[in-house]
Amino acid sequence: MKRRQFIQKAALTSFTTLIGAEIVFGSNMPKDYQPLALQDPDPFKLFNLDKEMVVLNERPWNIEAKAHLLDDKVTPNDKMFIRNNGIIPKEIDDRKWTLTIDGESVIKSTSYTLTTLKSKFKAYSYQLTLECGGNGRSEFNPPAKGNQWTIGAVQCANWTGVRLKDLLEDAGIKSDAVYIGFHAADTHLSGDAGKEPISRGMPMAKALQNETLIAYKMNGNDIPLAHGFPLRLVAGGWPASVSGKWVQRISIRNIEHDGAKMKGMAYRVPRLPVAPGDKVKDEDMQIIESMPVKSIITYPKTGAIIPKEKSLKIRGHCWAGELQVKEMEYSIDYGATWHSCTLEKPINRLAWQHFSAKINFPKQGYYEVWARATDEKNISQPMLVPGWNPKGYLNNACHRIAVKTT
Ligand SMILES: Nc1nc2c(c(=O)[nH]1)N[C@H]1C(S)=C(S)[C@@H](COP(=O)(O)O)O[C@H]1N2
Ligand SMILES: [Mo]
Fold it and tell me: Could you tell me the pLDDT band of residue 2, with boundaries at 50, 70 and 90?
């Protein structure tokens, strides 16, 4: 007891309460020792992540992929970015979970258990591209506050569930309905139970699309907790912030939904272009809807070294919000000339498309491979970071990788 200070009784009692079990031999714990059970969890174990995923923030958890991790046609769970605005709900009992359709413009407010959802409504499966509106934010200058996503806040998983439109029609939609808003079970960082971390939504036209789902499965299994177990709204092609996780309530609104992160600067961009660093008034901002055309090279990994005689087969994915990508090109001379890639059609509407190309390099040296997608309306990705905006949304600049031939 003299040389080493042992834990005090009061501390031991509070640890016991937190851990919920007697700490046998607890009195042997050194002073200021933090039991492992109370230390910050390892996100790689907690979320079963690939070891190359990048943690941007721990509270709330925000984790991104790297381009080469997104090589699969369907994004596997361990390579999927995680974006949270609040604290992930704990102790979810899916047998007791209900989803309520309510709001000013519902004809009859109705609640559904998971069992009812699965038995009463037809199941649909779609692969849907979800990209965070802030993906690419790290490249804006002056820098925009928020998670410094590079390129990895995008995923295209396979979602199974019921169509939101079937639920809305079952509860009944009044003629004055204009918007839906979601309410979810996650909690505000402040701990204030009356505050929602995020409650976004979409106009009725998007809510009623065939592919807008209330999903209960991701990639064929229960949705992982971090991605919205047991129920998640999924609206492909729009900023992923409208795809509410842990959704408990969908309100049919007679106004544009006014929940948390619908107003002010959140998920909005200036109506008209502004100079970098400019202050923009709230009324000059508009809500982001369909995401812009974009692509990523997922093979090879940037920094690849290839023998000169060999040609290089690159591949990746491209997407364009509500639209399809109609052309995919690459350049190895900093955009001076462009060459066509082979482009596949999407597996369904709002799923990303795959591209590939065989590149022959003229001589030994350092190259950059740039990729550029063009959508059905003939809009292409910009080569440089596009329009600066206060929160750093919608950076769809061409992705590029470094390649050395030896
Ligand atoms: N309830 C709830 N839903 C949410 C969020 C959240 O914080 N809470 N984050 C949104 C944002 S901003 C994004 S980009 C996506 C991220 O989805 P993921 O974590 O499954 O990749 O979820 C959206 N849905
Ligand atoms: Mo997001």
Answer: very low
Q: Give residue 221's Cα distance to chain centre.
A: 18
Structural domain boundaries in the chain: 2-40, 82-287, 294-405
Report d(CA 319, CA 339) in Å as an integer. Answer: 19
pLDDT 10s digits, 38-94: 777 899 999 999 999 999 999 899 999 999 999 999 999 999 999 999 999 998 999
- Does ligand 1 lie within 6 Å of residue 199's CB atom? no
Q: Average pLDDT of 344-363?
A: 97
Domain 82-287 part of CATH 3.30.70.600:
no
Distance 115 CA to ligand 1 centre (A): 24
Which residues have CB under 8 Å from 228's CB, separation 6+? Answer: 215, 244, 245, 246, 247
Ion ligand 2 contact residues with beta carbon within 5 A: 83, 132, 241
Confidence of residue 34 (pLDDT cuts 50, 70, 90): confident
Topology of the domain covering 294-405: Immunoglobulin-like (2.60.40)
pTM for the complete prediction?
0.91
